[in-house]
Amino acid sequence: MSTFLLPSVPIESLDVYMATGMGGSGVRRAHELGPAATIDIVSQSGLRGRGGGGFPTGQKWAGVASQTGGRRYLVCNGAEGEPGTFKDRALLRANPYQLVEGVAIAAFAIGAEEAFICLKASFRREIDAVTRVVQEFQTAGLCVECKVTVVAGPDEYLFGEEKAMLEVIEGNEPLPRWLPPYLHGLFATAPQLGWQSHDVEVEIGSASGDGSNPTLVNNVETLSNIPHILVRGAEWFRSMGTAESPGTIVTTVVGDVLAPDVGEVEMGVSLRAVIDAVGSGLAVGRSVKAVFSGVANAVVTAGDLDVPVSYEGFAAIGSGMGSAGFIVYDDTTCMADAAYRFSRFLSIESCGQCPPCKLGSSAITEHLERIETGVGTQGDLDAITGWLGHVTDGSRCYLAREEQIMVTSILRAFPEEFAEHIELGRCPRPRRLPIPKLVDLADGRAVYDESFWRKRPDWTYAPEEQNMAGDGSERRS
Ligand SMILES: Cc1cc2nc3c(=O)[nH]c(=O)nc-3n(C[C@H](O)[C@H](O)[C@H](O)COP(=O)(O)O)c2cc1C
Ligand code: SF4
Questions:
Q1: Checking phi first, is residue 9 left (phi over 0); if not, alpha (psi -120 to 50) or beta?
Q2: Among 101, 176, 284, 399, fewest CB within 10 Å belongs to which?
Q3: Which residues make Cβ contacts (< 8 Å) with residue 147, sequence separation at least 6?
Q4: Which residues pair with 115 in a beta bridge?
Q5: Does residue 96 have its Cβ closer than 6 Å to ligand 1?
Q6: Does the pLDDT at position 197 exceed 60?
Q7: In sequence order, which residues have a C-beta less than 8 Å from that of residue 19 and are 6 or more positions away?
């Protein structure tokens, strides 16, 4: 298998990075080629954004580079808030240099005034590494003209949503604004449409006062690929993976597997092979019941485990590859409980700017909890179906759609489990079902964020002694 993003031994100094033959060569190549030809190579490579959506990276860069309207900015998205995902932190631990070089190349290609690398404040180790590497690059003359700022953001899931990330960089809460970053960029002074998430601040970034400041947002893994593509070429990149999903993907495999881990695989490898190769498979006697790629996509059932891990592969089975953070559940799992817990996650993280999203996801969660705890009726299922038709009404961001897709898919794939709960008046498969919001992942051990169970819908936290729904004891007692 071809792998190049995740070295087996972490690269911890600029000298070691330079010795790989890669260090600095990508930036140099970009400067030789100029911005337009640099963007062309990225387009020809077929690289697609690894933040979840899979949007063609070269097309995004060309779009931002062609926009007029004040200054341009680059944002690197390292929020990594998707449950089941740890790959950006793994990349930053293994080789923070390729990311910073990718940032320098992207900033040059789109003519960015300044670049921001955004990580959660709780990712202390990764923040320290990136901050150190930016300084090393500047001292070594590899990033002289580029201004790079490392931003430490909040733990909220929405921090990773690109329109909310721009708000955080500007010093506000992670509440998504209306327009995408290429239309309403950082420190923009052009008027925003509709209801504001904060008061418009005038004259921060644009001397003329009328700049929309087109801003490019790319994920850590997307930008980590860039120096390799510049140095080795688009054809080399296309020699890996599939025609529609070239290259490799850094996947995370957690849940009911023997040894949760992060691993780089060529696109097109089957999901079954990834679960075995990266997660070391399941315990003897257990089989896969369901796999989720984060909480944003439709459930993948046991019959679809041979799906190729690629954008088109997952689309063909009615799901999405997302950021390839695979949460594996075995045959002991209660799918009503899984639906309840995922829905709870999304309803808590919903910011409430769009009432159907907050009210709908909260109502769906309550009805799912009633079903899971054995007091649900057909009326609860009907109410869920009703809300699923409206939860996305007028939504500013994709979170509401995630709720709609994820819950609908579980109801469709496992209708008998919901009927069983209603008929029995209890959960037939009680077990502790964690939400893998990852704090750490190393040596085959995943550490989940247990404080999440104390998080309330208004983003405050209940005192520690209150378990909420962490191990199910409160709900079931
Ligand atoms: C609720 C929500 C959370 C998201 N969280 C992340 C995240 O943690 N990291 C990330 O890279 N993208 C995240 N995204 C996707 C970003 O909005 C954006 O599409 C991405 O950073 C673009 O980069 P790419 O083109 O390189 O994929 C999230 C999207 C939504 C709707
Ligand atoms: S869709 Fe939901 S999470 Fe997104 S902005 Fe609206 S209320 Fe907030």
A1: beta
A2: 284
A3: 113, 114, 115
A4: 74, 148
A5: no
A6: no
A7: none
The structure tokens listed for 200 are 């418009």
Residue type, 420: E
Q: What pLDDT is attached to residue 448?
A: 95
- pLDDT, tens digit, for every residue of 394-423? 999 999 999 999 999 999 999 999 999 999
Say if CB 393 and CB 291 are below 8 A apart. Answer: no
pLDDT-derived band at 476, boundaries 50, 70, 90: very low
What is the torsional sign of CA 7, 12, 18, 24?
positive
Number of residues that make up the chain: 477
Residues 152/185, Cβ–Cβ less than 8 Å: no
- Residue pair 38/30 in contact (Cβ under 8 Å)? The answer is yes
Amino acid at position 105, single letter: I
Distance (Å) of CA 407 to CA 234, 331, 389, 395, 402: 39, 19, 11, 17, 8
Q: Per residue in 91-105, is it b (16+ CB within 10 Å) or e — as a string?
A: bbbbbbbbbbbbbbb
CA of 366 to the centre of ligand 2 (A): 19
Q: Which of 222, 284, 294, 285 is nearest to 253 (CA)?
A: 294
* pLDDT tens track for 41-60: 999 999 999 999 999 999 99
Residue 81's closest CA among 114, 121, 132?
121
